[in-house]
Amino acid sequence: MIGRGPSTVTDWGVPAIVAGVSLLEVALVAPDGAAAAVVLSLLSCLALVPRRRWPRSTTLVAGALTLFTPWFGPELDDLAAPILVLAVVAYTLARWVPGFGGLLVLGALMVLLAADYVFTDERDNDVTDVFFVTSLLVPPYVLGRVTLRLAEQTAELERQQHLVREQAVRDERQRIARDLHDVIAHSVSAMVVQTAVAQELLHTDLDKAAQALDNVAATGRQALAETGRLLHLVRDSADELGLEPAPGLAQLPDLVERFRVDGLDVDLRLADPVPELPAGVDVSAYRIVQEALTNALRYGADSRAEVTVSWDSDTLRIRAANQVGGRSGQGTGLGLLGIAERVHVLGGRLDHGVTDGGRFEVDASLPMGAT
């Protein structure tokens, strides 16, 4: 997994910190060849900046510059800050190089380190010195591998969540399509009956026949609107649609009663009589309340919920609220996807969130003349 994004604060910040520590150590120790040490340290830290984009080449350059320090400047035992550069190199090779390809670069750098001990260090050394430095690089390498693994797991989890959300949207679209199918079937049946009535009245009462034909036209316009929504939803789907009668606001008391039996204390505020709504709006309002109560039953803190359905001449408004912070918080959010899909299809507006008082509220507005 090689990083390809733009440079971040971390990309510059870590090399800057290492460079600062290196310069401070050179200033305090003042070893022989300090100038060369400063130049090589700055160059190696600069090479580490694009390490996410080119992890192999940048780490090889940075590590080589660091290990060339004993050849042109201070001896191996004069400075400790170069170990920080090598630690960043080890982490980078583990984090940003897929597989174990980074070990090849790290092995080449260990060969250079061994050459430093053999050809530049006048002390009596043996192979244990190389193993000692190598042991200092093992923890950052292991940390890099662990971080890589966690990043891969996070990416896979996000991918799975994305698939689940997409499936939830598809399922809700199919459910909306079934509801709209029932609405259209009812509208067409009503048109057939009204047309037959108009045909009978043409010979006896022209005024009533005209009124019946007006009803046919109004029902047809509504059916056309619902057909447009249906075609938008199903697109190329070949799934069969259900034929169960579509519920509406009139069935909300029965719905609330079922939730009360399941243990949810629902306070429903619905004026009587309910308004005459376009069938698509009516069934969608019912489904929105149903989903809101389902979420309250599953994730509410106190098994209580409030639902208010109000309307004016243009807009139907549904407000649902329940206390959160209990068993499972706000849940997965898939229910909200379904509500949002219905509101979007009808050209409405949806707001939801947790208030300062710890209540989760859903506020949906649907145009009563939605087309």
- What structural class do you assign from the helix and strand content? alpha+beta
Globally, the shape reads: rod-shaped
Average pLDDT, rounded to a whole number, is 79
Oligomeric form: single chain
Low-confidence stretches: 235-244
How far apart are the first and last residues' alpha carbons, in Å? Answer: 48 Å
Strand content: 5-15%
User: What's the helix-strand series?
Assistant: HHHHHHHHHEHEEHEE
Tell me the Rg in angstroms. Answer: 35 Å
Q: Biggest sheet: strands side by side, in what order? A: 1-2-3-5-4
Number of strands: 5
Helix content: 55-70%
CATH topology of the largest domain: Heat Shock Protein 90
Number of helices: 11
The CATH class assignment of the largest domain is Alpha Beta
Shape-level CATH architecture of the largest domain: 2-Layer Sandwich
User: Mind summarizing the main beta sheet?
Assistant: 5 strands, mixed
Number of domains: 3
CATH superfamily membership of the largest domain, which one? Histidine kinase-like ATPase, C-terminal domain
Enzyme class: transferase
Domain Signal transduction histidine kinase subgroup 3 dimerisation and phosphoacceptor: 172-237
Transmembrane segments: 33-50, 101-119
GO molecular function: kinase activity
Task: Characterize the structure shown.
- With 371 residues, the protein is α+β, with helices and mostly antiparallel strands.
- It folds into 3 domains: 9-125; 164-234, Single alpha-helices involved in coiled-coils or other helix-helix interfaces (Up-down Bundle); 249-367, Heat Shock Protein 90, CATH 3.30.565.10.
- The protein has helices spanning 9-29, 34-47, 55-67, 69-72, 82-96, 102-119, 127-201, 206-234, 252-261, 279-299, 334-345; strands at residues 265-270, 304-311, 315-323, 349-354, 359-367.
- Strands 1-2-3-5-4 form a 5-stranded mixed sheet, covered by helices on one side.
- A hairpin with a 4-residue loop joins strand 4 (349-354) and strand 5 (359-367).
- Helix 6 packs antiparallel against helix 7 (127-201).
- The longest helix is centred in the middle third of the chain and has 75 residues, at 127-201.
- Mean pLDDT is 79; it is low at 235-244.
